[in-house]
Amino acid sequence: PTVPFFWMLFDQKASTWVVQARAMDQQVGSFTFQPSQMQFVNPALVMLLIPLLTIVIYPLFQRLGWELTPLRRMPLGLVIGAFSYVIAGYYQVLIEGGSQLNIAWQILPYIVLTLAEILVSTTGLEFAYTQAPREMKSVVQSLWLLNSTLANVAVSIPAALNIFTGAAQFFFYAGLAALAGTGMALMARRYKVRDYYQEVAPIPVGEHAAPSLAPKGA
């Protein structure tokens, strides 16, 4: 129930963050960025950060005696995602105060949000698959993807009511994600991990296992 709070943050990089970019100086060197073009940073960072985390960061934490298990990564990712909105909210405060920020400053919250994406989305998708019995894997994967839909519906409600605008909306969503991360961490402490990844499908009645190709006596 806490995962949709991450997608409430992540999907707004194509809306709220683009609106913020329109109020920034879009000239970077000799190139003029369109506000929506800053989203290219996200897939580029995914390709860089996944190997860094897998090869360097995760083994480092394991050697330090605090393994970043999936149930630790996901709550941490929610909190990190909240921090990306604190940064973006601070930018918005400066913009509303009359400061002119360059669009390149958005790279920092994009880095933080992408790190959160890997910790929550990539980890969660694999974790959901391993925790589901063979007969339920498709259903669980569908429910996981449903999180994004629920998040978009939830975001549309305060947007339609115009409850929060400007910098306040950034800090509002940051607070929600931080609370969700705390809640997930508390729930994870009681969760018993089950690994169905190596589960072998039963042989149907009337069928026989494939004969071994190993030579007799081996």
Short description:
This protein has 218 residues and is mainly α.
What does this structure look like?
Helices cover 62% and strands 2% of the residues. It has helices at 4-10, 16-22, 41-63, 70-96, 107-131, 137-161, 167-188, and strands at 27-28, 31-32. The radius of gyration is 22 Å and the shape is globular. The chain is built from seven helices and two strands; from the N terminus they run H-H-E-E-H-H-H-H-H. Helix 1 packs across helix 6 (137-161), helix 1 (4-10) runs antiparallel to helix 7 and helix 3 crosses helix 5 (107-131). The termini are far apart. The longest helix is centred in the middle third of the chain and has 27 residues, at 70-96. Mean pLDDT is 84; it is low at 207-218. By secondary structure, the protein is mostly helical. A two-stranded antiparallel ribbon has the order 1-2.
